[in-house]
Protein 1
Amino acid sequence: MDISPCGHEFAISLLQMRSENDLYKRIQTILTELLPDIPMAMYLAPSLSDKERLKLLALSSSKTPPDLEYLLARAETLKHKHILFGDNHLCIVLRSNKAIMGLLWIGEKLPTARSYLIAHLINVFYHQLNTLALSRIDPLTQLLNRQTFDDKVIEITTGEGFVIEREQQGVRKWYLALFDIDHFKIVNDNFGHVIGDEVLLLVAQQLKDNFRAEDFVFRYGGEEFAVLFQAHDRSEAGSLLNRVRKVISAFNFPQVKKLTISIGYTVLEEIAQVSELVHEADLALYYAKKHGRDQVVDFEELGIAGQAKAETDIELF
């Protein structure tokens, strides 16, 4: 497809974005420039997963867009079409392996060339979004990776979502928990690294399944995992973590059979640096490992807030 000089520059600008937030802002700016005063609505699958319902990403409309279910049904009917033309609108469909991953509804008819240009740019946007998402993922466990952890902590502690309030649920704060598989070195020594990798994968899956969709689960390094999650208070946070600990201890791992995990956690303070928060959770985790493993420890219960020296001379495996 021929791309106008303007379209080429737009495409290059999308490929130059290095964060998802910047990419979202850039595509919205481009659409506003290409479609001035034209109503539109953009929907995208959260986490780029075909298992999640499309959610509204952007809306610029002087008239109500058609019902999302209607748009999806039409896109499903015309499975091989990426642009659906209507009498007074058009809809651009993003597909991945035939699954519908996104929709852009435009509330006016456009010239054919302009329609195809916008469809091209929407696909450039989506592929760049996938590229950025893949750079955040640990290839073995499919969890968020260590490199993403610092950015997410900073985003939470400095962003508007630092304290979350839901209708009829009250205010919830963010907590950081570090998880370490107990005696994991013995697993690798006795069963080999292939089984060790399978254990990591299964623990990762249990963590993903037992936290909410809005929480963040990371492979922090080796056999250690980190989770950023929400709770009303420390007691609720501890209860949630103990439930997850029990799920892991009850799980039957291939060949290995039974494993336990130790957990240390702390509340995310708005003014704290990432290194300080990790240090607090680490101290709680080390205490759990040193005092019997297979337990959850709250940093506050250690009574050493303000102390900088970590007690690290313990055998973790």
Note: Residues 5-134 form a domain with the Beta-Lactamase fold (CATH 3.30.450.40).
Protein 2
Amino acid sequence: MIEANGLTKYYGTFIAVKDMTFRVPRGQVVAFLGPNGAGKSTTMKMLTGYLAASAGTARIAGFDMATDRIAGAKRLGYLPENGPLYPDMTPRSLLEFFADARGLSGNYKKERIEAVIRQCELGSVIGKAIDKLSKGYRQRVGMAQVLLHEPDVLILDEPTSGLDPNQIREVRGNIRRLGEKKTILLSTHILQEVDALADRVIMVAEGRLVFDGKPQDLLAGGGSLDDRFYELTRGSAA
């Protein structure tokens, strides 16, 4: 459902991502780990078609995101880190806007808006301006618009960044429930997310893949998750 084949991104002479190759099958939740500056967000932007790759291909549900992005986007929900929202809109008006943009209409549009309001527990703030909401509620609004069109694939970039412990607990619970039916690639540098959420770990450092396997395989050589993270990523960008 998610495929990176030799994805590479250059900014002038700087190599942000080099020859990134991996596949995520249907129904798997993958933690995409790495320190800040390791190339996680750049890789995700290439996978979603938001950013053009310098080399390689990205596919979502079999669709090449360079040549068939619209078809791929219909199967994809993407939540970027600190994803932009329209601050003067309310959650309901934002969801109506995105529903129209995605071509939802009639009863299906109404049903999906009400469904994501319930799923993301937005009822108490549905009529408030987004710029008046807490970071946790803004994150819920972002997740609601991601889920609006019932995508098969979710790409979530640091979905718990900046949240307090209670908000993190809520977001993780929602991701676990979504992972029962959807394919999820979850970018994070928070190691606790691995134990909490992941079936598999892909770790990157300095734009390159350095580990791909099950969480238990990461610890097979002994030591803690912190120790293994340091061993595999030391020397990468801070």
Note: The two ends are 31 Å apart (CA to CA).
Protein 3
Amino acid sequence: MKIAVIGAGAMGSLFGGLLTESGVEVWLLDIWEAHVNTLNQSGLTIEREGITRVVRPNAVTNPQSIGKVDLVIVFVKSTHTAAAAKTAAELVRSDGSVLTLQNGMGNADILSQAVAPGKVLAGTTSHGATLLGPGQIRHAGIGPTRIGPWAAGDPAPAQKVARVLTDAGIETKVTDDVHALIWHKLFINVGINAITALTGIHNGQILDLAATRDLSQKAVEEAMSVARAKGINVEKDVVDHVFQIAEATAANRSSMGQDVDNRRLTEINAINGAVVREARQLGVATPINATLAALVETLESHYGKD
């Protein structure tokens, strides 16, 4: 199988590196020239629990250098999904698949506008990675990956991709309810990301104060109400699960927190903002998520003005 990974940040580089190690032909596509140059000259350095190794995926800034591929994996920020979708449509073979493992809602729908919906796979991963610098990442955590077809249809393409990922050490299973899966990942992001981004705290510090725990719980419960109104099957222990994730990743800064730290645009519109948009269409009140989204948007708008 020939695979293109659009977005060679921490997670894109991690998946690309692991797949390369398994013998798959991988092409990492990114606009960061220093990173791409380092990958081609020195390889990708992966650090895991103090041990480093180097793998050598192909890396380019121009998608025309790749040719047609069997699978496109999209790992860009949600703000860049529309552009990535156009590139994916150019790269994927007629019988290929496009997989999104991005945070937030709406990415699979955007991809489905550029490629045939039956080609789109979506999912979540519990693997974690940190970008240390050009050509260097830390493999910060290992966990299950779940994928499935975004549109109802043949599960065979998802099963094929799951086997390739599993062979690369990325344990992957296929679900028949990927929409619920995406919502449950969204609940985690809703309960952690905006709060940590706005306050400067680490994930685990959400649990330190009753007030912060209550804020996180209310944001998650609002999102759960929206999901139920859409007919999504919502598990009963969602808030407890969000708190467990916060505890398990206690020392981490959320991806949104890192974006704010580095004065980058966040994915707030695909996370809390997505909850608010869905809620308006359904007539569900989401004042906590609306406030968190407005505050992060305000913070973004003042980058460089302080």
Note: The longest helix spans residues 178-199.
Protein 4
Amino acid sequence: MGIQNLHVNELLKRREIFADLINGSLHHGRQVLKPGDLTPLPAQSGTVSSGRRGQPSAVERTGDIRMKADSGTYSVIFAGEVQANTHYAMPVRNMLYDALEYTRQVKDLEKRHREAKDLKHSDEFLSGITREDRIRPVINTVLFTGNVWDGSETLHGLLDMNPEDADTRELLKYIPDYRINLIPVGAIEEPKNYKTCLQQIFSMIKYKEDKEKLSRYVQENREAIDRMDGVEMSAALEMINDRRLEKQIEQQRKREGEKMLGLCQAITDMLNDSEKQGLERGEKRLAQLCGRLMEAGRLDDMKRTFTDREFRESLYEKFGIRE
């Protein structure tokens, strides 16, 4: 597990944040899942079976976040995966996780029936469970914090089969598909569907390529952003994944020590530095152009290039040019 995953996982372990992720992504902002409905589960899931000679055989998988949700209308196991990079086998990886969780639940039922000795019919003895038994559904989500997910989101997309071929399409009807529930943070269209710090984090990611929109958003939401604690801020920095911002935070730490100015100030400083660097590059290119025109004695070209008289005269003064 990478450093980025660790920071984001620490945030998602908070029940109010995980509930917000599910409500914002799966329920389109409706407050269906309550933090109090959630119970954290161990990250590991697996099953142990006996081989032909009675030797135990274990299959185990460790995920990122697992929560059991018990509400008035359903009981579900939610699993959350955090990916900073595309995992090209993710449909198979998640499918295995789901299968292990369902297998674990069935084995728990079998154990309960063995202890109670209440199986009555041959079909029940064969299955280990009764017709009335039910298992909890598993919903696996993949929070993708990278730039572009360029892998398949379905099992069918991984199969070595040509969907253009008529016979292949016929066979695909009999091959169960599996689709991952991908949540790409860089493509979230409605950050306002989220009610916790995820709204601010996803919004900043949405606007990070547009300097004006990012600056305006940060200023308008400064109070909410500056309320972020250390865990929230670390996760935000990892998901925003902008080296310039990380550099700004490092400079803050060197200047202020343990006293941090806050994420808003770091973003503002980053944008100001970027603008300043842009102006400096522009002035440098302007000076080079003026120098070339002066060397060539092309003052008429200078006039045609810089049509605003006041601006042109300021250049003359700056570079000691006489008409």
Note: The first strand starts at residue 38 and ends at 40.
